[in-house]
Amino acid sequence: AENTMWGGRYTTGPAEIMEKINASIDFDKRMYAQDIGGSKAHCRMLMATGIITQADGEKILSGLDQILGEIEAGQFTFKRALEDIHMNVEARLTEIIGPAAGRLHTARSRNDQVALDVRLWVRDAVDRADVQLADLQSALVERAEEYADAVMPGFTHLQTAQPVTFGHHMMAYVEMFARDRSRLQDARRRMNESPLGAAALAGTSFPIDRHMTAQDLGFDRPMANSLDAVADRDFALDYMAAAAIAAMHLSRLAEEIVIWCSAQFRFVRLSDAFSTGSSIMPQKRNPDAAELVRGKSGRVIGALNTLLIVMKGLPMTYGKDMQEDKEPIFMVRDTLDLCISAMTGMVRDLTANVQSMREATLPGFATATDLADWLVQTLDIPFRDAHHITGRIVKLAEDQGVDISELSLERMQEAEPRITGAVFERLGIDNSVRSRVSYGGTAPDQVRAQAKRWREVLG
Ligand code: ARG
Fold first, then answer.
1. Distance of alpha carbon 140 from alpha carbon 151, whole angstroms
2. What's the gap in Å between 323 CA and the centre of ligand 1?
3. Where do the Fumarate lyase N-terminal domain residues begin and end (predicted)?
4. Which CA distances in Å does 88 have to 31, 35, 56, 122?
5. How far away, in angstroms, is 393 Cα from ligand 1 center?
6. Does the interface ipTM go beyond 0.90?
């Protein structure tokens, strides 16, 4: 059969396998709203500049609205023979309004059309991720306020380091997700330029108004170079890179939840709604959602790599390779969406086991730094010497099988005779966290102040 899309010089249609490798409709139909919205903006501009008549323009606009309705009602038949979303919409427009449909593509190419559709789609994905991350931050702030003075061991190297609070730990993630949101905002600002009107690659001889379509579609301005406009996908990579970093943060939190849920830690309990049982071991409460957030982060990171690799060897300008941008972009959007939602649900429902966290803080001499600081502050001993004396006291406690706070004053004085009983006030874990009042420190009042600030920011 003759090819209906590029007609003229072809005598046969594509081989079946050609159609299969070439068609993108199975996935790019997700961009129908962006495609129709972009076409309407283009049509309004063609009317305003007198490139097409009002009468043809009105027909095109109403036909596009009808198609939007059909797709949303699930009544639209997508055809692989028509390759992609752009041609599917245009072919249907021809069925509905007749030859006037052929005027929509004046001064436009699928190259600037697809660049526009993807940009609009990614911009929506950025906005969605921002809203979702804000919601996750709110859930973390709620837990931070609830557990502002719940003591837990702070770790480095997964070795007990110093006591912190669970609230402080939650707030650390609030900051990470804030930077993820900021990276998404940066990406949005950079991507918010319109490629429409670049046409195939070189611009057009028609008197189009690119500023008009840019403004109509909510862009800050048209892109300044037509070759760049159709050739680059860095805006999508910006989004995916920000998403990959967010996925990495989600994965770290997920990993912590997995550890904290274990019988050996018992720091947190996920709600029934976010736990799964075992078909053989009745005692099990598995953190599957957390494990899957951790596991699925690989898809996001992989998709970023996929598109980088697709793009890196392409000469200017458009190459069909670039059709491969969509599936990784969609993968990132879907995975991030799911992972943020699942994480928000887990955090919102999570209860911390205050008693277990406190007990876990005791072994490991978590207040050794407090002792060294006390020696500096009370006896004016240089920190390096205080560190050494504290090391000897830790050794004594270890030999005796007790915490340093449980050593007798006499034992301590073997290491440093000037130590007085006042030191014990400093060695309790609550006193330890309460003393960390430096800006950004773990003292409960600091944590509450940060949580309050964030609650106001998040509204
Ligand atoms: N489906 C194509 C894509 O996603 C649309 C652009 C086609 N342009 C072209 N010159 N073949 O990239």
1. 17
2. 6
3. 8-302
4. 12, 11, 20, 21
5. 71
6. yes
Report the alpha-carbon distance of residue 166 to residue 146 in Å, rounded.
9
Span 293-328, pLDDT tens digits: 999 999 999 999 999 999 999 999 999 999 999 999
Q: What is the pLDDT of residue 416?
A: 94
Residue 127's identity, in one-letter code, is D
Site to probe by mutation for ligand 1, drawn from 25, 32, 84 as the one with most ligand atoms within 8 Å of Cβ, is 84
Instruction: Specify the pLDDT at position 150.
Output: 97
The pTM for the full model equals 0.93
Structure-block tokens of residue 408: 């007798």
Q: Are 328 and 28 in contact (CB under 8 A)?
A: no
Helix 32-48 vs helix 54-72: crossing angle, to nearest 10 = 170
What the block records as the tokens of 356 is 């277990």
- Cα 431–Cα 436–Cα 438 angle in degrees, nearest 5: 155
Distance CA 366, CA 153 (A): 7
Work out whether strand 193-194 and strand 221-222 pair parallel, antiparallel, or are unpaired.
parallel
